[in-house]
Design a protein that fits this description.
about 850 residues, alpha/beta, Aminopeptidase, 9-stranded mixed beta sheet, 23 helices, 35 strands, about 20% strand
Length: about 850
């Protein structure tokens, strides 16, 4: 019997070997040795498809989405024939093991490893490595696949990759030039790192603002892998980085997750040591901010890791670095292939243990807060619940009218009132640890030196009242409304009014303006038909729109599309002034908006604004290249948005004078974040840098090794502060008296000595996140939002970016208000 089993094993081994010989190697398929050219995304997809066709019983491809530029997004499953046959059963069993599906799991012993490549488009060696990794798994490492399902996403960011690859292929010398100063090592703005809308997809996992991220989350949460690796590149002089990660580790990360990272790192070291390759661990790349490709999976129970290869967009096919080493693409992809295979090896050797510890992670009984109750604007709550659904996080309706606990608004223990729109998110659900990460008031920080922002708490981001309770708040499941109440068509009336509270209202305004409706807004509260309307309420009257054919039916269509209930008013005579014809109720311009792009502009901030207009507000905006500003006719526009950036060389004396003349004639400039530096302290502007408060002079005796940590005292690394808002100013319509602002840097400005201080920080205590002691001293009466009039126009200052990574939902209305409401004293015919 034993001889028979040996014979069968031998025969199976031969058949697998012969079968794998049918698999094309990357070199044979591409027609060039891998690493000697950059492969376009379509070539990579074609290679994976060819391998899947050659070995269909072990390789399965799945399209999970499409980029904004219409490139396909694929994942590929690689495993043994038996595992591929039972792929869905393995997936379901894994979800049961985590408590995400009902029923008991069947003693799971199959590990699930997800390898993500090229999230940053110009870190292009990893996609090349994905092809070689696929080939080697199927030709050399078949044994590991018996108890491991490997999921490969060969290119998370196809648009960014092709932007880089196409640029390099058309720019590089033949043969490639290793001189760092050569054009092929210096990408033009905006570079290949981001996606189509210039977002950093490696910081979008938790927010899912981009189609690539949102599409990936759907399939990721159906699998919930045990290990996830995000492959990156860093500077040309850096060696290879792999796990274990650096401090700070978020407190929910388990001992096993930390220890197993170390075990994986030691396995990598074995292979790197054998080749004499340099590497480092436990530095720079921490596990704190939740929206990375290593932290998000970690908070979902996986061993989440970042691997960084030296190179980045500068390296091209080969570059002479500062140490005199010619770093080649072949070398870079070889390192990534080695670490990827080593990861799969460790998963295969520890499959049962991974499953056991994965199950333990989802025990949330030890979490301090049991519930997070949220109340406020129903539209904002709706936006939050949409985000929760992306992560398959459950929420419920409250069954009480009050909740007590840590009050986010006061920063102390207290109560909030709840109503029928209020929700509660409990931590006694499988993804309770992710709930804690997203909602905790102030994440515990063990080290102030972090790689990213240190605050992101959802109640602040969505502008909601909230409490975190150490006891479970009474609630009931949310019932899906199968038969929604039908939309009630508008009756004939003098006019129709929409409240102004949220981005839902802003999108409605954008739609009616594009449909050529004349729309008014009120600068003062008024009462009509027994209903009270606050500042900012939109008013559409029949008399203003006599030239529109089918005015009421068109308005019906738009209101229905936006799920917007309009209130009717039967007379222009208000019960509580102003009347509809009052000068305090103004017509809104159908604004023509331009924004700067190109050299000097922050590509990230520009991209966030671009995405905001095209994908959220859906209102037209014209991008103006900074190189053309001096010869641009600004009279064609009402608004000029200046994203964060360095415009020192752009705004010379002549260009600045042209800009000021345009504003004096009625234009509006909206300057965001670093763009304010272009005006601070300059002639004709009241915007001034805040003078640093005197601190005790100390001798320059800080040790060299302590300088980095000492400098943290001057930093604000993404912390949340409470600011006072002038809710009577049009820029603040829809807001209350307080606004929680996410401050990314330590730049501070005095309140304006002329103009309007719409928002300013009144309390220097940090509500969430880290801020150094020296930085805090300079925050009192620090400007957040302001308007300065110049002639008939305005300069609008936004010290803190209200669109940060598109997840700071509560800031977006400030930008919309600035465009349509601020200094709206004349209507353009």
């Amino acid at each position: 019997m034993q001889r028979l089993l040996l014979s069968v094993t031998f025969i199976l081994g031969i058949s697998i070997s012969l079968y794998s010989q049918n698999i094309p190697s990357p070199n044979d398929f591409l027609g060039y040795d891998i690493g000697t050219q950059f492969s376009r995304h379509s070539q990579v997809v074609d290679y994976f498809e060819a391998v899947a066709k050659a070995l269909p019983n072990q390789v399965k491809m799945e399209k999970y989405g499409q980029t904004y530029e219409r490139r396909p997004l694929y994942i590929t499953y690689i495993s043994s024939e038996e595992n591929i046959r039972n792929l869905n059963a393995i997936r379901e069993n894994n979800l049961k093991n985590a408590g995400l599906r009902n029923g008991a799991s069947d003693n799971p012993e199959v590990a699930v490893v997800w390898l993500s490549y090229n999230v940053h488009g110009n870190e292009a060696s990893s996609t090349e490595a994905s092809m070689l990794t696929l080939y080697k798994l199927l030709t050399e490492k078949q044994d590991w696949l018996k108890n491991t399902v490997v999921i490969i996403d060969p290119c998370v960011n196809p648009d960014g990759r092709d932007r880089y690859v196409n640029w390099f292929n058309e720019t590089a010398s033949q043969p490639y030039d290793i001189d760092q100063q050569a054009s092929e090592h210096n990408e033009p703005w905006p570079g290949g790192r981001p996606n189509h809308y210039l977002f950093d997809l490696n910081r979008d996992w938790a927010w899912g603002s981009q189609t690539e991220s949102a599409s990936r989350l759907k399939v990721y949460n159906k699998w919930m892998p045990h290990i996830h690796v995000d492959f990156h590149e860093q500077g040309i002089n850096e060696p290879y980085y792999f796990a274990p990660a650096a401090e700070p580790f978020h407190e929910i990360i388990s001992d096993f997750q930390r220890d197993f990272q170390t075990e994986i790192g030691k396995n990598h070291a074995k292979y790197f040591d054998a080749e004499g390759w340099l590497f480092f661990t436990r530095e720079r790349f921490d596990l704190f901010y939740p929206s990375y490709g290593d932290t998000y999976p970690t908070y979902m129970g996986a061993i989440g890791m970042t691997y960084e290869q030296g190179g980045h967009g500068r390296a091209g096919l080969g570059i002479l670095n500062d140490e005199g080493h010619v770093l080649t693409l072949v070398e870079r992809l070889t390192h990534h292939t080695t670490s990827g295979l080593s990861t799969v090896e460790m998963a295969s050797k520890n499959a049962k243990r991974l499953n056991t510890e994965f199950s333990k992670f989802f025990d949330n009984s030890g979490l301090k807060y049991k519930s997070y109750a949220l109340s406020g604007n129903p539209d904002n709550i709706g936006s939050l619940t949409n985000l929760l659904l992306k992560h398959h996080i459950q929420y419920e309706k409250v069954t009480t009218n009050k909740a007590s606990g840590y009050n986010y608004t006061t920063g102390q223990q207290g109560n909030i009132n709840l109503d029928e729109n209020s929700i509660v998110v409990h931590t006694d659900q499988p993804k309770g640890k992710m709930v804690k990460v997203l909602f905790e008031p102030n994440a515990k920080l063990t080290d102030s030196l972090t790689y990213d922002i240190t605050a992101w708490s959802m109640p602040y981001a969505f502008g909601l009242d909230a409490v975190a309770s150490t006891s479970k708040i009474p609630s009931k499941p949310v019932k899906l409304i199968k038969n929604r109440k039908p939309y009630q068509p508008l009756s004939d009336a003098y006019g129709y009014v929409s409240d102004w509270n949220s981005m839902k209202d802003a999108k409605f305004l954008a739609s009616v303006l594009k449909a050529d409706f004349r729309v008014r807004f009120t600068e003062k509260p008024f009462t009509s038909n027994g209903k009270d309307f606050k500042r900012g309420a939109l008013i559409i009257t029949k008399g203003d729109n006599l030239k529109l054919k089918n005015m009421r039916s068109t308005l019906d269509t738009i209101a229905k599309a936006h799920d917007k209930k309009l209130e009717t008013i039967n007379s222009g005579f208000s019960e509580n002034k102003p009347d509809i014809g009052s000068p305090d109720i103004k017509l809104i311009n159908k604004q023509k908006i331009a924004m700067l792009s190109g050299k000097g502009t922050s590509s990230l901030n520009y991209g966030a604004i671009w995405h905001f207009f095209e994908q959220q507000l859906k209102y037209p905006v014209t991008s103006l290249n900074t190189e053309n500003l001096s010869r641009t006719n600004l009279d064609k526009y009402n608004i000029l948005i200046m994203p964060s950036g360095d415009y020192g060389s752009l705004l010379n004396e002549d260009t600045m004078n042209t800009l000021k003349d345009w504003v004096r004639s009625g234009g509006k400039v909206i300057a965001i974040d670093a763009a304010l530096r272009s005006f601070a302290g300059k002639d004709d502007f009241s915007l001034k840098y805040k003078k640093t408060k005197n601190t005790e002079e100390t001798e320059n005796l800080t040790a060299y090794g302590d300088r980095e940590r000492e400098n943290a005292n001057n930093l604000i690394t993404g912390a949340i502060f409470k600011s006072k808002i002038d809710a009577t100013h049009p820029m603040a319509f829809g807001y209350g008296d307080d606004y929680f602002t996410l401050k990314i840097g330590s730049s501070t400005y005095d309140i304006l000595n002329r103009g309007y201080n719409v928002g300013y920080i009144t309390e220097t205590n940090v509500f969430s996140g880290f801020a150094g002691q020296n930085a805090l001293k300079n925050l009192e009466k620090n400007l957040v939002f302001g308007e300065e009039r110049m002639g008939n126009g305005s300069f609008i200052y936004m010290v803190d970016n209200p669109l940060f990574r598109s997840f700071w939902e509560n800031g977006k209305l400030f930008l919309v208000n600035s465009i349509f409401f601020v200094n709206n004293n004349a209507f353009e015919l």
